[in-house]
Amino acid sequence: MSLNQLGCWLGVGILVFGGFSAGWAVEPDLNKLEKSGYIMGPGNANFPISEAWKRQVSLMTNVDVFDALAERIESVVCGGEQNKSVLVVGDPSVAYLYLYARIASSRSNSRCPSNMWHVQLNIGKIESGNRFVGDVEQYWINNVLEPSSGKDVIIYLDALGMLVGLGSHSNDETGIEREYVASITSGRMRSVAFMDKYEYNEMIRSRNAYVLESFGDKIILPPVDSAQVFKLAQTYMKVLYPSMVLRDKDLQFIIKNTAYYQPNRNEPDRTLSVVNALIRDFGPGNESKPEIRWIDVQSAHPYPPNITEEYIIDQPEFEALQLKFDFFDFEDNYDYLEIYDGHKNDVTPLLKLSGKKPAGMRTAYFGTNKLRLLMTTDNSGTNQGFKITTIYGKKFSAYTFSREEVRRSILSVAQVPQWLIDRDYSIIKDLEANLNSDVVGVAEGKKDLVRLAKNGYVAGRTDDKPIATALLAGPTGTGKSYIAKKMADFTGLKLITLDMTNYKEVRNFASFQEVMARSLTNNPYAIYLFEEIDKASIEVLDQLYFMMDEGVFYDAHQRPLFARGAYILMTTNAASNVILKDPNNPNLRSLVMEDLRASFRMSFLNRFDAISIFKPFTDPEFHQLAQTLVSKKLERMKEVFEWDMSVDAGTLHFIATHGRSAEFGARPMERLIENTLGIGIAEYQLSMGAIPELAKIKIQKLEGLYDFKIDVDGHALEYAVDISNNGLLSLELQNIKIPHSLLKFFEAHRLYED
């Protein structure tokens, strides 16, 4: 082949390929594409818009806040370049979905032809049912690539990262992303994909970076600002809920306060979640069923060039109207039909239509009973125009949301407890009494936690720090974790517990960040309990240092997560020896602080609002503890087995005497209660048969040191309790004779008197 021949052959090839890429006019195979995703637009009788997208597309037909981005995307996917693919990178929010819906909606200034199809792929649908090696890849080729290759359709991906590796196997780490990249770089497929910017930053440094670099254009989606959110939410109400009035000042109130109470969610997610909660919780069911009316509003067929014609549709009996077009055929981007509210002199139309639309197309409901249709044509070509013979009307009883309803919705979505929403401060007023009735001893801890709750919830803090931060220091079994659980119970707050022994190693730091980021995002108002904080690595402590000091937790991507709604409690057994040695020492706090400095930096300790010392129980407190723990055990027996169970004073005295331990706190007593009551029930059922529901059970202490009697509805059985293995704490071992001299020694050195 000569050079001239080669040049001619290449020239023909380039011309053919260029014409193919710039001038597609081939209908996609929607039967196959619909198996793998959802149709976003334009829709017709055979392939209507998916219900999953109908509301968004209807809404975004009237919202232009993303048009600059939409036009840039369309300049690539519908332009003349070979690579017709765009990657959108942004914050983890639903903003990109509204951008997709805007591109798929009817827009007069769209760069894509009106007959362009828009299909969102669902990776779950592709993967489902394709489990064998090669199945996913073959499915992708048959049902995604071939139906869309070189055809008038834009393929949308919600999560590009899910595509990478899909269909891979042990001998090949790459999946169908190879086919995807080959198709978009060669110009066979029009595609728009979204990726979370944090996932993008990791993937760009990986071996899969080539996937990200294969797109024709890359757009960094900026955070949605308050003005965009306002317009989006305002139109959301007018288009989808025309009879429910959310005043502009109240919408601004939502945007401002939601940013404070839910700072860890992005816009427009957080504002729209409040708007939806407002509609769900307070919006009355005031919408009538649609009623059909027959009219005759139509243009000439074909319509003449260079005209301006006005049509009025007036239905006084309704409050909202929807138009159904028998057909709509305008010269795209040259001739237009604009729809206005007939009661207003607005310059901006409610809807602007151009191009060819599917027969039977319906608009969204317009919140007016009078519409003015303005048709304008240029002086060039003409098409068939439009015809309307059917409209739908709805009646509403108007409802305006109050500021109090708005406030309640904001706090409810942020999971603020109901008593704070109601400003019912009796919860805090009664907190001390409730804790005293349930939590034995630890007076200092209860006093500190109540004081911090008053400051954090009632006084009205103005800084961004957490509600409270407290370190609970003391020996094991003194109620540090238990008091946190009761705080959550009595305040109606969720308790999120993290065992810091899981985060001793540096390698577990990323896991800690992930758990905290998820918790602060989903539960901004909660009690956070960090168990055994002295076990945590220095990296974890540094993260918590900033959270306590600034009210901000930085996740693995250095994204700030606010913790201003968190009530933070941390427990430690550090300084236990000092406390056990002399719990009544007047200088105990100084000694404890000195010991804590051996485990924590002074700057870390200085970040706590309170450091509460949990002392071992006194003798009267052990007796109170026995009564409390036994009562809880009996309540649980009634709940689970429906037994009416009781114990006598001798049994309580036995448990209080033999279950106490200064070093191990309440846990030996809990074991002894299980031992004393549980053995009796077990021995009875083994000897006498199962205890029926609603039975009355009595446990009675007999004269023998370890002897008891269980009575079930008048049928009694004696049994003995072996406490020798109750944590190896008892000095009085059953069936072991202790010398008299040794007993005298024990009496002289016992910790507590009976």
Topology:
Elements: H1 3-22, H2 30-36, E1 37-41, H3 51-60, H4 67-77, E2 85-90, H5 95-104, E3 117-121, H6 123-127, H7 135-148, E4 153-157, H8 160-163, H9 177-185, E5 190-196, H10 197-203, H11 209-213, E6 217-220, H12 226-240, E7 244-245, H13 248-261, H14 269-282, E8 291-298, E9 308-314, E10 320-329, E11 336-341, E12 351-353, E13 356-357, E14 370-376, E15 385-394, E16 399-400, H15 403-413, H16 418-421, H17 426-429, H18 431-438, H19 443-460, E17 468-473, H20 480-491, E18 494-499, H21 509-522, E19 526-531, H22 538-550, E20 552-554, E21 560-562, E22 566-572, H23 576-581, H24 588-596, H25 602-605, E23 610-613, H26 619-641, E24 644-647, H27 649-658, H28 667-688, E25 696-701, E26 707-712, E27 715-720, H29 740-748
Parallel strand pairs: 2-5, 2-6, 3-4, 4-5, 7-16, 17-22, 17-23, 18-19, 19-22, 24-25
Antiparallel strand pairs: 1-3, 8-15, 9-14, 10-13, 10-15, 11-12, 11-14, 20-21, 25-26, 26-27
Helix pairs in contact: 2-7, 3-5, 3-12, 4-5, 12-13, 13-14, 13-15, 14-15, 18-19, 18-20, 26-27, 26-28, 27-28
User: Which stretches are low in confidence, meaning pLDDT under 50 for 5 or more residues running?
Assistant: 1-23, 728-739
Q: How many structural domains?
A: 5
**CATH architecture annotation of the largest domain:** 3-Layer(aba) Sandwich
Strand order of the largest sheet: 1-3-4-5-2-6
Shape, please?
elongated
The average pLDDT value, as a whole number, equals 86
Instruction: Work out the helix count.
Output: 29
Q: Looking at this structure, what is the CATH superfamily of the largest domain?
A: P-loop containing nucleotide triphosphate hydrolases
CA gyration radius, whole angstroms: 36 Å
Give the helix proportion (percent range): 40-55%
Oligomer: single chain
Strand element count? 27
SS strand fraction: 15-25%
Class based on secondary structure composition and strand pairing = alpha/beta
CATH topology of the largest domain: Rossmann fold
Which CATH top level class of the largest domain fits? Alpha Beta
> Could you describe the largest sheet, including whether it forms a barrel?
6 strands, mixed
